[in-house]
């Protein structure tokens, strides 16, 4: 009987109002967009970490020498010296065929001409991307050829990393904006319920109900609507993200493969409806109590 007595005023206060019932669908839309924005931010962070792991210890040594015999001899000497250094995982000279393929967009078939002078390119993979290890590789290469140039792959793609970071912060700002908008919607729904059922609340006060008891009815119902609507919207968003992840996995790109979400990321996304429901409950309680203290 006690539960029925509590449930009836709660339904009478909130469920019969079309304005408050529509909140469920509003929350579904809000959480759908929030989960998508959060997934974007987490994916960009994952891609940035993957990019750092892949490029942290990757170097390319470039030897420029017009005489092919001297160039090849210097390349062999550099490979031997660098291979002997501690922390070096792999050293390999890029063959001319591969260089011609890389230059084909600019040189066309001319890149395959044996008379065309090309620099020797040596790829180096280090165990770590520490400055000391890179400096050791540079000294070893320049001991063979003073004109040897060592390029860090991370420097080439630093604009990409900066772009990924910017998108991540933009996604985080969207999540904060959606949370703020959700709080505003909750406050508006609570005030609409108070205005619609002002007479009923006055009767409850005359029967001995306190402001906190009335606020509890609102916060419970609004939290439930937020949780149900949020679960619906988040479920659709998670399904869309999963489908996009399946599609991106077929692209066979190292950078795109780093965008994949991990288990912790999926757990964070799944917890967003619970966080928003708690936030809605707190906002509804604070808003209703403030309004009741001022007007009733």
What does this structure look like?
- The chain has a four-stranded antiparallel sheet.
- 75% of the residues lie in helices and 8% in strands.
- It is an alpha+beta fold and 296 residues long.
- The N terminus is likely disordered.
User: SS-based structural class?
Assistant: alpha+beta
Strand content: 5-15%
Distance between the termini: 29 Å
Helix content: over 70%
Task: Identify the overall geometry.
Answer: rod-shaped
N-to-C SSE series?
HHEHEHEHEHHHHHH
User: Radius of gyration in whole Å, from Cα?
Assistant: 31 Å
Low-pLDDT stretches: 1-13
Spatial strand order of the main sheet: 2-3-1-4
Tally of extended strands? 4
Strand count, sense and closure of the main sheet? Answer: 4 strands, antiparallel
User: Treating each run of at least 4 consecutive H or I residues as one helix, how many helices?
Assistant: 11
Please state the average pLDDT score: 77
What's a concise summary of this model?
This protein has 296 residues and is an alpha+beta fold. The protein contains eleven helices and four strands; from the N terminus they run H-H-E-H-E-H-E-H-E-H-H-H-H-H-H. Helix 2 (18-55) packs across helix 9 (211-249).
Keywords:
single chain; 296 residues; alpha+beta; 4-stranded antiparallel beta sheet; 11 helices; rod-shaped
Q: What topology does this entry show?
A:
Elements: H1 2-15, H2 18-55, E1 58-63, H3 68-83, E2 88-94, H4 96-107, E3 120-126, H5 131-144, E4 149-152, H6 153-156, H7 158-196, H8 198-206, H9 211-249, H10 254-257, H11 263-295
Antiparallel strand pairs: 1-3, 1-4, 2-3
